[in-house]
Amino acid sequence: MLSGFFARLLGTHNTQTPPLFLYNTLSKSKEVFIPFQDKAVRMYNCGPTVYDRQHIGNLSAAVFADTIRNVLEYNGFKVKQVINITDFGHLSGDNEGDADSGDDRMTKGLKREKKAITMENMRVLATEYMDVYLADIRSLNLPVDKIKFPRASDFIPEQIAMIKTLEEKGYAYRGKGGVYFDTARFPHYGALGDINLEGLREGARVATDTDKHNPHDFLLWKSDKKLGWDSPWGMGFPGWHIECSAMIRATLGEQIDIHTGGIEHVAIHHNNEIAQSECATG
Fold this sequence. Notes:
The chain is of the alpha/beta class. It contains 6 helices and 11 strands.
């Protein structure tokens, strides 16, 4: 699974189409773009958490992904594009490092609109703001009809199955908060963005969590006695990171060509995706 191609898109169109170069965030270099299947491109774009209207910064990610799509199609590639919709609660705070504790964004949205915190109301709220999001990107001339927008809540079995695989392979462990991914078992963790794991101090961005084996471990399944779905680990929610890996696998396959998202996702979310995806699939 590739971490993401950001920034510069190069290439012109003539009778002898020259190679297309993309900037690879993992290698920090421009590389000739060669898809796994000739002229067929599978592209996944991290989408919105639909608890409110998206601001212009959120929408710019969709415009950027559309620019990549346009360049690929101009160069003769056929693109299968997926933008995920996060429509249930597990992400807490505006800070990715705080993703395993506190109130989630969907709950914040329900509180804001003075609605009871139930799974039914969460679904209704998500549908409302998903429709607003789709209307917004249509107004920006994105080809919405060519893009798949899977909702995370429709892929709970796939997320549970991937967590079970990671647990069976020894990459996950159970704690009071739920099921955690053991980053120590993945030697390449942090390669994306050259994250200096030794230089990060526990408690610098998140409260000390004695439930984790190390501060970089992250929740695959978040326990919740009041809300969520039944699972082998009790009631709760899939973690935010497992959502993308499971939905990519379900909608695009085990190997994809391009993965994009906000630059702020590089250090944590995309590193976590790489780790759990590669450990689950080999």
